[in-house]
Target: Homoserine kinase
Amino acid sequence: MAVYTDITEDDLRDFLTQYDVGELTSYKGIAEGVENSNFLLHTTREPLILTLYEKRVERADLPFFLGLMQHLADRGLSCPLPLPRRDGALLGELSGRPAALISFLEGMWLRKPEAKHCREVGRALAQMHLAGEGFQLTRPNALSLEGWKTLWEKSADRADEVEAGLEEEIGSELAYLDSCWPRDLPFGVIHADLFQDNVFFLGDQLSGLIDFYFACNDMLAYDVAICLNAWCFEKDGSYNLTKGMALLEGYDAVRPLAEPERDALPVLCRGSALRFFLTRLYDWLTTPEGALVVKKDPLEYLRKLRFHRSIASSVEYGLPAEAV
Ligand SMILES: Nc1ncnc2c1ncn2[C@@H]1O[C@H](COP(=O)(O)OP(=O)(O)OP(=O)(O)O)[C@@H](O)[C@H]1O
Ligand SMILES: N[C@@H](CCO)C(=O)O
Model:
């Protein structure tokens, strides 16, 4: 459960006096997510999400995240909106953490997505990439090559506790990616964490995207690689080509990938797998026993990384052969 910071009813009521949202009728911590503390609030008007920003979110980045949600929603993307306080600010403070009230998005995330859902995710990702054009604020990706190296330095000497040989394997992988990481592919605002729990559906219809707290400026095709990793593998570790084809088709229908982006997919998938392996490994090694959060398995992403190393061409992800 991701409630790192608890709140008292008195503090919450006090916090809410700064907003025009009606009277609080109930609230509870949300037992999902691993990054921030989230609460579902009911008021005499509408349900709301209260988010308290935790360790991996820099306060200075919050205007980027909250402004981006407004920018995307203004351009027709379905995503939650931060609510302004009476003084116009989007951000307040509660229990010593930066805190925001966010509109409630209807829908559920899918535990067992099928290819048709992957197609919708591909479409929505491309729509987000187009809608992000013109957003004035920028934020470099703190979890790209340099960030991976920093994370790795903090975990390397304990990595073999998780699996023997990891210290050497990941060290070599980082050196490889450092030598060939693409730098000149189309750039824009990316979501950077569009996993299943961040995409809501109503029935088979995608109802919106949430959790923009890793969003940043990076290569658009890197976001596609993140989604291939998050959506197109089965629990047994195998890559599901039908899902991959559907996701890539959905994306291409809205924003066709350019040839250099297609060619770069295998290396982008390796980088993306390494990114989630590294944050999970760090959390695995540092989260205290008994903390109210479900730790995610780093080895799931190690297996994905190894799969991508075996890929010779982007066709193997499900791109049509003639387009590669
Ligand atoms: N705007 C929203 N509308 C409805 N439910 C929401 C909203 N924002 C968050 N939630 C609920 O809270 C849960 C956790 O939210 P979120 O994914 O933003 O947290 P997180 O800690 O940043 O998670 P993650 O591990 O994905 O980074 C979601 O799975 C969803 O159930
Ligand atoms: N989506 C991430 C957690 C949030 O950053 C993961 O599954 O590792």
User: Anything to note?
Assistant: Residues 9-103 form a domain with the Phosphorylase Kinase; domain 1 fold (CATH 3.30.200.20). The two ends are 43 Å apart (CA to CA). The chain has two domains: 9-103, 115-323.
